[in-house]
Amino acid sequence: MAYRVKEAAEVLSISRSRFYELVAAGEILTLKEGARTLVRRRELEAYLDRLEAAATRPERMQSRPSRP
């Protein structure tokens, strides 16, 4: 299954402008079919999976000062 840009942006709850920013940054891959730009559902799912992984990644522990 594939979505048009407007539909894909709606699925992600982002603006079309933000969607195109993500495409330009290489975060979301698109397909061209004539004049239409399409995005596979699995591409949107992969993007969301990467967001989730980044959000749940443990932060680096800050170094504690050494004791005298």
Automatic annotation (TrEMBL):
Annotated keywords: DNA-binding
InterPro entries, sorted: HTH_17, SinI_DNA-bd, Tn1545/Tn916_Xis
Single GO molecular function: DNA binding
Short name of any one Pfam family annotated for the protein: HTH_17
Taxonomy, superkingdom: Bacteria
Annotated ranges, domain Helix-turn-helix: 3-50
UniProt keyword Transport present: no
Keyword DNA-binding appears in the UniProt entry: yes
Name assigned to this protein: DNA-binding protein
Organism: Caulobacter flavus
Source organism phylogeny: Bacteria, Pseudomonadati, Pseudomonadota, Alphaproteobacteria, Caulobacterales
